[in-house]
Amino acid sequence: MITNTYLKRVYEDVCRRDGHEPEFLQAVQEVFESLELVVDQHPEWEKAGLLERFVEPERVVEFRVPWVDDSGTVRVNRGYRVQYNSAIGPYKGGLRFHPSVNLSVIKFLGFEQTLKNSLTTLPMGGGKGGSDFDPKGKSDGEVMRFCQSFMTELYRHIGQFTDTPAGDIGVGGREVAYLYGQYKRIVDRFEAGVLTGKGLTFGGSLARTQATGYGLCYYAAEALKNQKNESFEGKTVVISGSGNVAQYAAEKCYQLGGKVVAMSDSQGYVYDPSGIDLKVLFDIKQRRRARISVYADEVPSAQYQEGCRNIWNVKCHIALPCASQNEMDEEGAKALVANGAIGVFEGANMPLTPEAIAVVQQNGLLYSPGKASNAGGVATSGLEMTQNSMRLSWSFEEVDERLHSIMKNIYAACYDASVQSGRPGDLMVGANIAGFLKVAEAMMAQGIV
User: Fold this and answer.
1) Which listed residue (107, 116, 128, 198) is catalytic?
2) Average pLDDT, whole number, for the chain?
3) 148 part of a folded domain
4) Within this chain, do residues 262 and 347 fall inside the same structural domain, yes or no?
5) Is the confidence at residue 308, as pLDDT, over 90?
6) Structural domain boundaries, residue 221
7) How far apart are the C-alpha atoms of 177 and 190, rounded to whole Å?
8) Are residues 183 and 312 in the same domain?
9) Helix 208-228 and helix 244-255: axis angle, to 10°?
10) C-beta of residue 407 within 8 angstroms of C-beta of residue 376
């Protein structure tokens, strides 16, 4: 509950203006509850209207995206780009193509992205975008035509020193390539740094594909070591989702000695007590783009269950929610507690409801918010931008080493901030405060803009 007079007033204003945007309100409330621990130390914030400016995106762009499907039918989707905050660098954040996309979702993601990018220590502001277009079941030609139409509007709002999008849910290497091809065609420049997550033949970075999943595990390993004297070695892991983040989190879990026994998609989950066979999973998801239920059809030791939310009933030591926002509710969190889990580390953005977070924390499980533990993807996007600017490419090992170092530093920043705010070990509080203080200092220095 928010009790500070200044924070409460600003939050109530947000509720009045944006009461129809539940995801955005949830994200703001979570951060404001953490800032209660430090706001009294900064009376200059209220005088400068800092929080009023922080909760308002610098720019919101909404546009139509007309395209033609394979049958010749004209389709129209909505496109969005929220340029949230540029105090510490150009707007940076992914594009999400999914039927659930609306302005509330994109605003909450841009808000979170601002703090996440701050934690990486790289010079990147926060932004997010996307469309309610669903690439599932679409042909390559349909996806290409949609991406070209989407970029025909978006191109005028982005640039390597203005706003640099990347991928997110529904936007992988295929989509980024189509988007970049259209951008290059329109502006007549090979401006590689304008998009990240590109293919290796046209400016992409080694290890970018793996970065979010790997970074999640690097962060989790650091937290487990320092706060529980534990590791992934010999631990059972459940990962929700089966997209890019989930796939490479699973790969890194195995490399660190863990065993992944369950993964999901939007329809249900598979449980394989022998451990998920990543070769089979990658073929199903990366090559065939099929449902995860196919895994159970092809692996005798696996079982498929309808209903993706029920995945948290699978017994595990470590839970890595990597699917989407609010995927773990109070009941899911209670199931983890009952089954003896020791930690929950977010690979998606805001996958735990507030009620789930309360259950996890009250029962002594380690918990990390996505703005900290899934920051590896955007951090490596920042490294991709650096390589583009320098016109060179680093080796996989060099990028991975830099990623590992960044994630360890993010953990340290979160832990140190939790101690300094009087909540030692509370990594959610630490992430919110550490991320915000850097942005706040930059905003204060730059005047009322």
Assistant:
1) 128
2) 97
3) yes
4) yes
5) no
6) 211-368
7) 13
8) no
9) 50
10) yes
Give the CATH number of the domain where residue 253 resides: 3.40.50.720
Tell me: do 166 and 220 sit in the same domain.
no
Asked whether the beta carbons of 182 and 152 are under 8 A apart, the reply is yes
Is the predicted pLDDT of residue 434 greater than 90, yes or no?
yes
Residues 80 and 222 both lie in one domain: no
Summarize pLDDT for 43-64 with one digit per residue, the tens.
Answer: 999 999 999 999 999 999 999 9
SS (H, E, C) the chain: CCCCHHHHHHHHHHHHHHCCCHHHHHHHHHHHHHHCCCHHHCCHHHHCCHHHHHCCCCEEEEEEEEEECCCCCEEEEEEEEEEEECCCCCEEEEEEECCCCCHHHHHHHHHHHHHHHHHCCCCCCEEEEEECCCCCCCCHHHHHHHHHHHHHHHHHHCECCCEEEEEECCECHHHHHHHHHHHHHHHCCCCHHHCCCCCHHHCCCCCHHHHHHHHHHHHHHHHHHHHHCCCCCCCEEEEECCCHHHHHHHHHHHHCCCEEEEEECCCEEEECCCCCCHHHHHHHHHHCCCCCHHHHHHCCCCEEEECHHHHHHCCCCEEEECCCCCCECHHHHHHHHHCCCCEEECCCCCCECHHHHHHHHHCCCEEECHHHHCCHHHHHHHHHHHHHHHCCCCCHHHHHHHHHHHHHHHHHHHHHHHHHCCCCCCHHHHHHHHHHHHHHHHHHHCCCC
> What pLDDT is recorded for position 129?
98
Q: What is the pTM of this model?
A: 0.94
* pLDDT tens column, 375-428: 999 999 999 999 999 999 999 999 999 999 999 999 999 999 999 999 999 999
Cβ–Cβ < 8 Å for 43, 50: no
**What percent of the chain has a predicted confidence (pLDDT) above 70?**
100
Q: Is 8 tagged catalytic?
A: no
